[in-house]
């Protein structure tokens, strides 16, 4: 356990606010990739509010840690984080996905402040992350590169090319997260295209691999702390498989592959908001029970 | 002349074009620690031998994985490096097309692609290794500057220009030796500006890459044999293309032939036609290149002869074009 109770509760509160903002953004946009957005929101929260060494006042600071959202469609969760952090005006969220907005469904790194890579076409982020981590070595920088890929996204062979590069060059300064929400657009991953045994595959590709509950903030932090500790030496790269729920936090859709992309009517929006509040209460109770 | 890397005539005749890239990148990497060379198991084929000796820590070999090579380059570029990627044109344009589009061009990163073995210069390898559609692909990519050097000197100039200018570049060079066009690097190379290699007012041949030498030889022959004054433009930059030189050729010569070791769909000829059409200044026009089919297998010179993009083919095309009756006055209203 790496978090104090106070830290854990603060992160839970922030994650809850961001889930609400993600849902609100989906309503403003009329529709969005809410399922895959919510499954990574706990990760986004701990990275942006605990780990990433970044400067909001200097977004292009060359020594900053990098974060690459390979599953670019989770932008509906990422954009609220970047606004809440102060990189972008929160008013922009009201234009998300609308004509003329700087914030499209997949974020453009040349338009949205704080985005380290333009993603959307799946299977690109890990190679970009490998290049970013290699550049740190060549330029003598000690920043870390974090990348999160979806599980269904691993069907793109380019990911495995990137994993070979990360392993070959011992890019322990690059930490790979796999959002294992078990869902693809057409159904469960194991029905559409079998991924298991995923951890064994990552180990076979040379990764120091752990599997955690990706919707459990304290477990996530433990895994990240260990990966950061390993990054001090040039060695095998780290992979954190995050067992998550698509649509995490909203009981009606959590774990259901159908929530990949949803439009929200007013009644549904209100119901999901209520369920997020109920989920938050359960999470706080869990912290009270588990925290030291 | 841009840059400080100078090659002499001995280099030009004794060193293959890709080796000149190898020397140019070695010079650049010696003086700028931000520059990295990335390859996909083609360090030897794309002539990175010199940098492997001088800056091995900045040569990244990703193995046979072109998609990864482009993504890695994009990440490095955004982090402050200046990556030069080298690989066969067929694979840099097609195997990694999505990465070229999204990681390199959409993000507008400062990465330079050296696409070797272009056109049919690896002719014996067959259509899997021919690159006769890469200009159609790369020309349509926003933010990308596309250059097709005609010889070793021009390759050195193009590599220097790519280094000195910010933004993504695609430089398409041949396998092996190119016929020598220039005496040295100092002929006024400028990105986006065609080079006039032969004066003329009867017709204009606009060529790129390996076809430029053929075009100049054809023009010399036509002057001696037929008394024709044929202008030859080396259109080394396919994008941004030299619109002024094209429109001037239309107005001055009323007959244009384009020649390229590439499909006639989407390459140099298409680019020239687009300029002419949009200028509203038409003239007799012929596009030489690979017709809408895969190229035959064989030595490049044999393929060029068969397809009609060598000097003989160009001469025949010019003679055919000269039979077309175009008015010599300045009244364009009665041309159509």
Could you explain the architecture of this structure?
The complex is a heterodimer of chains A (292) and B (336). With 292 residues, chain A is α/β, with parallel strands linked by helices. Chain A has one domain (5-290): Rossmann fold (3-Layer(aba) Sandwich), CATH 3.40.50. The radius of gyration of chain A is 18 Å and the shape is globular. The model of chain A has no long low-confidence stretch (mean pLDDT 97). In chain A, the strands form three sheets. In chain A, strands 2-3-4-8-7 form a five-stranded parallel β-sheet, sandwiched between helices. A two-stranded antiparallel sheet of chain A has the order 1-9. Chain A has a two-stranded antiparallel sheet with strand order 5-6. Chain A has helices spanning 5-29, 34-39, 41-51, 75-85, 125-139, 157-168, 189-192, 198-204, 217-231, 266-290; strands at residues 31-32, 66-69, 145-150, 174-180, 183-184, 187-188, 208-213, 238-243, 262-263. In chain A, 45% of the residues lie in helices and 13% in strands. By secondary structure, chain B is α/β, with parallel strands linked by helices. Chain B contains 13 helices and twelve strands. Chain B has helices at residues 9-14, 17-31, 49-54, 66-78, 89-95, 97-106, 134-139, 152-164, 210-226, 243-253, 268-279, 300-307, 311-322, and strands at residues 35-39, 59-61, 82-88, 112-116, 145-147, 169-172, 195-198, 203-207, 230-234, 237-239, 255-263, 284-290. In chain B, the strands form two sheets. A seven-stranded mixed β-sheet of chain B has the order 2-1-3-4-6-5-10, with helices on both faces.
């Amino acid at each position: 356990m790496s978090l104090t109770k106070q830290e854990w509760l603060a992160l839970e509160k922030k994650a809850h606010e961001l889930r609400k903002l993600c849902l609100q953004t989906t309503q403003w946009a009329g529709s969005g990739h809410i399922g895959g957005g919510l499954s990574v929101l706990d990760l986004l929260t701990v990275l942006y509010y605990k780990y990433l060494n970044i400067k909001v006042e200097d977004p292009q600071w060359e020594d900053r840690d990098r974060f690459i959202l390979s599953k670019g469609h989770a932008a509906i969760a990422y954009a609220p984080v970047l606004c809440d952090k102060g990189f972008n005006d929160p008013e922009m969220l009201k234009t998300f996905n609308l004509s003329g907005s700087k914030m499209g469904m997949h974020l453009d790194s040349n338009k949205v402040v704080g985005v380290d890579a333009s993603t959307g076409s799946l299977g690109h982020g890990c190679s970009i992350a490998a290049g970013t981590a290699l550049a740190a070595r060549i330029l003598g920088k000690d920043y870390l590169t974090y990348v999160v890929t979806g599980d269904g996204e691993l069907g793109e062979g380019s990911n495995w090319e990137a994993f070979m590069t990360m392993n070959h060059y011992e890019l322990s300064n690059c930490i790979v997260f796999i959002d294992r929400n078990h869902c693809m657009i057409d159904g469960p991953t194991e029905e559409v295209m079998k991924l298991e045994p995923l951890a064994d595959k990552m180990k076979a590709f040379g990764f120091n691999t752990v599997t955690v509950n990706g919707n459990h903030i304290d477990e996530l932090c433990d895994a990240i702390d260990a990966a950061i500790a390993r990054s001090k030496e040039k060695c095998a790269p780290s992979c954190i498989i995050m067992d998550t729920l698509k649509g995490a936090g909203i009981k009606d859709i959590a774990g259901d592959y159908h929530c990949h992309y949803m439009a929200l009517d007013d009644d549904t929006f209100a119901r999901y908001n209520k369920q997020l509040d109920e989920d938050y209460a359960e999470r706080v109770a869990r912290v009270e029970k588990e925290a030291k | 002349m841009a840059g400080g890397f100078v090659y002499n005539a001995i280099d030009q005749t004794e060193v293959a074009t890709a080796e000149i890239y190898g020397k140019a990148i070695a010079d650049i990497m010696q003086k700028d620690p931000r520059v990295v060379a990335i390859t996909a198991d083609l360090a030897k084929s794309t002539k990175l031998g010199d940098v492997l000796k001088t800056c091995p820590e900045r040569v990244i070999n990703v193995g046979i994985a072109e998609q990864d090579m482009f993504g890695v380059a994009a990440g490095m570029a955004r982090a402050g490096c200046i990556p030069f990627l080298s690989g066969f044109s067929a694979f840099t344009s097609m195997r990694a097309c999505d990465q070229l589009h999204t990681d390199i061009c959409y993000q507008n990163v400062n990465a330079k692609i050296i696409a070797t073995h272009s056109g049919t210069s690896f002719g014996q390898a067959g259509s899997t290794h021919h690159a006769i559609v890469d200009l159609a692909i790369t020309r349509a990519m926003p933010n990308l500057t596309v250059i097709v050097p005609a010889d070793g000197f021009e390759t050195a100039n193009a590599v220097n220009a790519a280094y000195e200018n910010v933004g993504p570049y695609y430089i398409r060079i041949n396998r092996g030796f190119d016929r020598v066009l220039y005496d040295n690097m100092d002929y006024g190379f400028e990105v986006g500006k065609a080079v006039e290699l032969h004066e003329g007012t009867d017709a204009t041949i606009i060529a790129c890459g390996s076809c430029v030498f053929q075009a100049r030889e054809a023009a010399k022959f036509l002057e001696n044999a037929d008394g024709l004054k044929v202008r030859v433009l080396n259109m080394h930059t396919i994008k941004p293309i030299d619109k002024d030189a094209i429109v001037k050729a239309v107005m001055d010569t009323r007959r244009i032939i384009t020649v390229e070791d590439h499909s006639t769909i989407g390459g140099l000829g298409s680019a020239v036609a687009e300029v002419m059409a949009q200028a509203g200044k038409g003239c007799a026009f012929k596009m030489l290149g690979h017709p809408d089919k895969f190229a035959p297998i064989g030595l490049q010179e044999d393929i060029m002869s068969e397809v009609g993009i060598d000097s003989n083919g160009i001469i025949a095309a010019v003679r055919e074009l000269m039979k077309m009756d175009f008015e010599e006055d300045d009244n364009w209203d009665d041309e159509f």
